[in-house]
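> call design_seq(struct)
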């Protein structure tokens, strides 16, 4: 019995040993297949079509990729391609949907350098300024097709880019105006209000000065939107703040504007009382001509008459917001003269005539 048990135990132990020897062999095969598959994955990633547009590089020990189209350096952790694909799609309008996509030679040969792109953007912004075009006109389909035919691979600036560039240009010329008016010893300004088709009000301030050679210089100091009510105090505060920002308020001696009450009375609200008011001669001539020739006659219908009956109202044209009497007709009505000398002369003439007849 003992021998039989011994033989059975030996068989079991031998089978266990065989099973133990078999297991390592299978695990080594699996490891070899896993390593081969990993190597295949790495090779497939390295052969992605995206790398036709980029070149691998390192910066301070960090993996980077350099774009061959715009020379821009991107960070690529473990040489991932998602950032590279996003760069091609957003910047160069090249979509990488499959791995078989290969860049065309024309795309690389017609690439635009940064200095050339900057020069073209500046020309585009200047065209919008000179022609008074809308900020989004360069993004319209017809214009984009024309630009693409003239200069392939060039994207005109977006309206947001145009706005930023205009703000930079405004600040640049604003600083130049400060430098230009530094030599002015005395300053005279003209100001007036304008309205566009949407009834938006704008305030325009123009500065004048004479240099040491007696040459006159003039320049628009501010052209701004005026959203507040046209009260005298509001206008005076705004003009004073704009001139203080330009370091010109202490040089101001005269203000020329129309004869509206709010424009005349705004001088009372300046912090300096030595500023003089000059009524614009052009406005005076305009009022005299229009009122004397009875221009812009308006017609009004009577409420209790027939449709064919109309009454003509020869409205007197005055300055804007001029509620005080300052028109030509009112000036004529208020004119008076001394009639006594004229009546004495007429009586003397009559007496002389009677004596001659006698």
């Amino acid at each position: 019995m003992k021998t039989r048990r011994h033989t059975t135990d030996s068989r079991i132990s031998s089978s266990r040993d065989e099973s133990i020897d078999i297991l390592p062999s299978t695990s080594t095969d699996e490891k070899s297949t896993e390593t081969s598959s990993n190597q295949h994955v790495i090779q497939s990633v390295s052969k992605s079509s995206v790398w036709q547009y980029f070149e691998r590089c390192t910066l301070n020990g960090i993996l980077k990729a350099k774009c061959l189209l715009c020379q821009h350096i991107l960070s690529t952790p473990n040489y991932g391609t998602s950032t590279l694909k996003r760069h091609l799609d957003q910047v160069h309008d090249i979509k990488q949907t499959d791995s078989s996509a290969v860049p065309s030679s024309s795309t690389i040969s017609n690439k635009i350098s940064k200095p050339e792109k900057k020069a073209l953007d500046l020309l585009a912004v200047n065209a919008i300024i000179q022609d008074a075009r809308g900020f989004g006109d360069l993004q319209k389909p017809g214009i984009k097709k024309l630009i693409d035919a003239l200069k392939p691979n060039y994207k005109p600036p977006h309206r947001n880019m145009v706005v930023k560039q205009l703000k930079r240009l405004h600040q640049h010329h604003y600083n130049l105006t400060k430098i230009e008016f530094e030599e002015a010893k005395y300053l005279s300004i003209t100001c007036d209000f304008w309205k566009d088709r949407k009834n938006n009000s704008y305030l325009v301030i123009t500065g004048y000065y004479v240099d040491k050679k007696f040459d006159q210089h003039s320049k628009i100091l501010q052209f701004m939107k005026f959203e507040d009510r046209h009260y005298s105090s509001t206008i005076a505060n705004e003009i004073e703040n704009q001139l203080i920002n330009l370091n010109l308020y202490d040089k101001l001696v005269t203000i020329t504007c129309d004869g509206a009450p709010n424009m005349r009375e705004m001088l009372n609200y300046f912090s300096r009382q030595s500023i003089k008011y000059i009524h614009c001669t052009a406005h005076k001539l305009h009022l005299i001509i229009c009122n004397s020739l009875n221009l812009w006659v308006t017609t009004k219908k009577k409420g209790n008459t027939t449709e064919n009956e109309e009454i003509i109202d020869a409205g007197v044209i005055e300055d804007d917001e001029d509620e005080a009497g300052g028109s030509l007709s009112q000036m004529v009505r208020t004119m008076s003269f001394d009639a006594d000398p004229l009546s004495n002369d007429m009586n003397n003439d009559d007496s002389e005539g009677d004596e001659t007849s006698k």
